[in-house]
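Case study 2.
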Amino acid sequence: MNLLALVAATDDGGFHGPSIDEFFPPAIFLAGTPFEINRIILIRFLVVIAIVLIFWLGTRRMKVVPGRFQSVVEMGLDFARVNIAEDLLGKKDGRRFLPLITTILILVFSFNITGVIPFLNISGNATIGMPLVLAIVAWIAFIYAGLRKHPGAFFKNALFPPGVPWPLYIIVTPIELVSTFILRPITLTLRLLMNMIVGHLLLVLFFSATSFFLFTATQTSIFYGLFGVGTIAFGFVFTLFEILVAVLQAYVFALLTTVYIQLALADEH
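Prediction:
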């Protein structure tokens, strides 16, 4: 039996590649109700509990000379404050929107990293619900910032940019409407969602192939064990890559949220 035929086999213990069904796991609790809880929802609950516990333990007894655990918590908070919020918005507006930006950064990273944690093995952002909620929150913050700073001119200047000859508004206004108020939450959602979906599928593919080559295909020929060594090596490399992606996607999501708020606060509005 050649390699392609062997890998394509799906019966009698054959290879089973990842499928989209993995992102729609069966219900664990409250099946058939609007409050149905499946594996991904449960992971989200666990992540939120872990975040609350970590920050409670890290901040309940703050010391002038912080211990190791307090230092790690403060490092994460300072990163959001210094490198994102205050860097783009300045100290005044940066501190005003810091709770939102920090929450988005920590939530996105925490939900992302579950994709490489043993026994969880899927990102809490691997289905559209959470990325969409976070994107809508970012979009609402953008609208709020603009209306608060420019209550009478925000929508007018966003849809009818000053200095454009009025006949061109026939073309410019629909473009600004779509790009500013519709595409932003959509692109935020899809960028995060698709990265988590693709990452999960790749990891499942590599480690499923490893199991197949090492424990099933070797019954046909010991030669196939070499492919198992290769797939587990690729799986390890992509696990490290997924950790990097988890960090970068959290940073990009928080950064873009801050950039949108900065644009809403700009004086030209």
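The longest helix spans residues 68-113.
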